[in-house]
Amino acid sequence: MKYADYQPLSSPGWLQRKNGAAYQGALGTELDVAVDRIRQAVLASFPDAPGGVLATPADALDHIGADRLLPRIAGEAHAAYAERLRTAWDAWLLAGTYTGLLRALARAGFPTGATGMNIIQRTKRYAYLSGDGLTGTPVLLTHNGFDFDGTPRTVWNQFVVLFASDVSGLTVGSQLALALNNVVRLWKPAKARYMGAVVIVSGVVWGWPIGTQWGAAGNWGDGVSRFIPPT
Amino acid sequence: MSVPNVADILGSPVLNELRTDLISRMNVPAYVLTDEFAGAVARTIWEVEAFVLLDLVGGGGQAQKMLANSTPALDTDGAWLTKIAHCLFELDRIAGAFAQQTVTLACAAGLGPYVITAERGQLLNAAGQSFTPATGGTLSGGGTLTIQVRAEAAGSARGLVNKLVTPNLAGVTVASAATYDPGTGPLYGADAESDVAILARIITRWPDLSAPPPSEDRIVTWAKASSTEITRVKLDIDTVNPGGVIVTVAGPSGPVSGGAVAGAQAYIDTRIPITDYPTVQNATTLNVGVTAGVVTVRASKLVEVQAAVDAPANAPPDDPNWSAVLATSQIGGTVYVSKLEQILKDLDGVIDVVGLALNGFSDEVALLSTQVPVKSGTLTAQLTWVTV
């Protein structure tokens, strides 16, 4: 029973006549509003879009996303974002993996594919993302060892993010660099050490493209790259 | 301003606290309470207000119930539980299924013909559950018509249809009924998952935090999960690639298929942290056979003993036999002669075992790093049997 009905009925008979009932009913209605607000507030914490129709207040999604560490992709529709937040467990299951980090970077707007971002680990393996930040899969490839800072090969828990072509705005100290470092810090394995990002601006640089041999693809000295240190 | 704790926020006032609060708010210069004795108008109104407010914000009140619905740890049920399961735990309540039956209607001679139309009409079973025709047809006088019917509500059906209610057709009876499986749903229908059942799934969605962590290495767990072929896994340091690990896999009968190896590599690669480098490889085999040994056995038990020693792995009885020992030996482990001796001596009828040797070794056979032992020949043929 609604409070609008309950409150007048809880009053003595002389207060249940026309004016008294209206007065008590008005007070009860306010309580009904309070109940509804509480219900809506509780429901607002549940991201849901059954059948693609958003059932959560749109402005609640970004708060839920902040709570689940899954920010909205630029231009992402409310319903799609709600569903992604609802299935956050699936996304975080991949934390620390190539899939998890590459997808998170793609969702943050960094370029995918072989000419986009490549994660290169110190020992043997590197990968780029084929597809988008929601369902893309890593293409795993091998190299014969990468040296990031001159430490012995036994210091194997290192990796870099290499952008095979220039990324506009990704410069030292930029907002994009901050976003890159934040995403990497959030999604990398705790044990792994992020050594920074390399942006290939033009030409050929030492060690990239992998497999390049002396004299095969221009002069190494002509290549231009940019290093974005970790923070 | 101090930050309230949860108890402050969710604290439930009692009636007297609400009365006190209300009267303090009403007792302002613009509206001085002068008639707050029992029976007076103002007194009556704030008493009613306090009483109704108690229903809203008091212990077990509407507000508390509503807030409790934000978590399954509290008193949650029904649609709220469905919502929580769906939105917070990625679990959906299992929907009920509609019971379906095949019903044969019979029409008395001289009546009809009647047209039975799908989705129209009502039939009942003895429990009073209602069904609707899913198919139709024409029922001629003196003839029968078999149709399929579907329960009007999801849930387990408690009996076969025995009565046609509408359309009300003279001379038409239900001749027989049977459960019907269209191949797309349960035969008898099913109730929707109960609150208790879905709450149990929510609670067991993840392992108990108080439980000890798994003792098995996660790569071993992943390799076994990738294929039913893989039952044995061994991890070795990759001496060529720093930080790498060599994952050797085997099944009960030795090496596994190439597909299982590739599948395990892909399964692990999807889950392995960046900077790790696992390489999955197949196990190799070492044939292990008896090269010496004399078993003294009672003559009446010889056939039985020989059958037992060469039984396949895990064949009944389930006592460990030689095949099972080899099938579960660790990759790169050791095969002990004493284990075979123990198995032989445990068999009913065996009196003594002497001079046992495996592959020429009288104590143990050490396997290479990637090897699993495979039974070579039969013990019946390899052992020397002396009957008494």
Largest interface: A-B, 48 and 34 residues
Q: Could you give the order of strands across the largest sheet of chain B?
A: 7-3-4-6-1-8
User: How many independent structural domains of chain A?
Assistant: 3
- List the uncertain runs of chain B: none
What is the tally of beta strands of chain B?
Answer: 18
Q: Order of SSEs of chain B, N→C?
A: HHHHHEEEEEEEEHHEEHEEEHHEHEEEHE
> Class by helix and strand content of chain A?
alpha+beta
Protein described:
The complex is a heterodimer of chains A (231) and B (388). The longest helix of chain A is centred in the first third of the chain and has 26 residues. In chain A, 35% of the residues lie in helices and 16% in strands. Chain A is an alpha+beta fold. Chain A folds into 3 domains: 45 residues; 43 residues; 135 residues, no CATH class. The longest helix of chain B has 17 residues. Chain B has 388 residues and is an alpha+beta fold. The chains are: A alpha+beta (231), B alpha+beta (388). Chains A and B meet through α1, α2 and α6 of A and α3, α4, α5 and α8 of B.
Quick summary:
Chain A has 231 residues and is of the alpha+beta class. Chain A contains seven helices and six strands, in the order H-H-H-H-H-H-E-E-E-E-H-E-E.
